[in-house]
Amino acid sequence: MLSLLAGTLAGVLLGALSGLIPGLHANTFAGIVSAAAVPLAFVLGADSICCLLVSCMIVHTFLDAVPSTFIGVPDADTVLSVLPAHQLYLAGNGEEAVRLSALGSLWGFVYALPVFAAFFFILPHFQSEIDWAIALIILTAAGLLIVFSKTPFWALLLFFVSGMLGIFSMRFSYFSAGVFGTGEVLLPLLTGLFGIPVLLHSLQSKTEAGTEQKFLGLAVSKKEVLKSTMRGTLAGAVVGWLPGFSSGTANALLAVHKSGEYESRRPREYLLATSAANTANAVLGVAALYAVGRMRSGTLAAVAEFPLPNIFLLLAAAAISAVLGYLLTVLFSRAGRKAAQVNQKTLCLVVLIFLILLTAVFCGPFGLLLLILASAVGVIPAKLGVSRIFCMGAVMLPVMLFSFGLLQL
């Protein structure tokens, strides 16, 4: 039991690091753990390593809200929550934004438990029908988002250009070789599309210091918390089973209005829903692994390399991680007051250099090329007045074509 607890707490620590450091992901540590599997298994045991990996994945979904809010740099799961979270930070409500994200993730975990049982016992019997519908679901999601946008033509063009870049990235991902071997192309791809443009905009702005931060409580009702997190959990349930969706994309579809202003009209509710979806997606990915052998992330692929432990053991580790992840996120939510005292241009420049170096180390020259190309596409939305959500075509279009059998990745 001590080794299992040690593995869980080690996963909490790694998840906190990956969540707090821009550009890192739980999958990064999963790859490192997988590479060191033999000595780690000898010291901790296979079950403890699985607990470590799942704990890291869960805690990451909590703490990734911190850099997204205070710096404006996303990872693959928070790409669409950056605007509303950073918007609240610029208004002096950064601590509230992070606390809302933490609360959304906690409720997402709670709601995901009964859905977990349904996934485990029911959905495997309908797997063939679900697989057939994947491409249609993604096509419908993309179509609705484009139709409801302010400028459908530019939205469609941006979706297509991003999609072509995504196809290029995934088709030639084997060129992405860094210091530690083949790198994850989503790192430079999504960093360029969603992170670099935010940093460049901050560097060009006239503001030297951050906005003074204050916390006056959560400006949202309990009813809205329950409603938004339930909606987010349902979105997480979809992406937890089906490949190709990101949590942010599914939530964008649920939260989008005909005006296309989902990012700014209800930022608090949107953050709750997105955070709930991120955590529910991670939890339900475990159900997909056990029920049908589907590995929805690099972390779960690493888990699958070991003999799978009792499923209740992983759920217990996930529950401990969710509670600790919530407490740590609330603790780091106060960091906004410190961040506001730092010269924002200096901070953004440091983060920008860090992301470039991180891409070079993990993905090599090909990753740097992707970062440049993705950044060039990523600045287009601000120039055209188009929502950045359509850059998610980089993920949605390749998977949609693959599901139709029109593309080999």
Shape designation: globular
**Oligomeric state as shown:** single chain
How many domains make up the 3D coordinates? 1
Helix content: over 70%
- Beta strand count: 2
Major β-sheet strand ordering: 1-2
| Unreliable spans | 257-264
Strand content: under 5%
What is the structural class?
mainly alpha
Q: What sequence of helices (H) and strands (E) makes up the elements? A: HHHHHHHHHEEHHHHHHHHHHH
- The value of Rg in angstroms is 20 Å
- Termini separation (Å)? 42 Å
Q: How many strands, which pairing sense, and closed or not: the largest β-sheet?
A: 2 strands, antiparallel
Number of helices: 20
Mean of residue pLDDT values:
79
Which helices and strands, and how do they pair?
Elements: H1 2-20, H2 26-35, H3 37-43, H4 46-63, H5 65-70, H6 82-90, H7 94-121, H8 127-147, H9 152-171, E1 177-178, E2 181-182, H10 186-204, H11 222-241, H12 247-255, H13 262-265, H14 267-292, H15 298-303, H16 311-332, H17 335-339, H18 344-378, H19 380-384, H20 393-403
Antiparallel strand pairs: 1-2
Helix pairs in contact: 1-4, 1-16, 2-4, 3-4, 4-14, 4-16, 6-7, 6-14, 7-11, 7-14, 7-16, 8-20, 9-18, 9-20, 10-18, 11-12, 11-14, 12-14
Provide an overview of this structure.
This protein has 409 residues and is mostly helical. The protein has one domain. It is built from 20 helices and two strands. It has helices spanning 2-20, 26-35, 37-43, 46-63, 65-70, 82-90, 94-121, 127-147, 152-171, 186-204, 222-241, 247-255, 262-265, 267-292, 298-303, 311-332, 335-339, 344-378, 380-384, 393-403, and strands at 177-178, 181-182. The protein has a two-stranded antiparallel sheet. A hairpin with a 2-residue loop joins strand 1 and strand 2 (181-182). Helix 1 (2-20) crosses helix 16 and helix 7 crosses helix 11 (222-241). The longest helix is centred in the C-terminal third of the chain and has 35 residues, at 344-378. It is globular and about 55 Å long. 54% of the residues are buried.
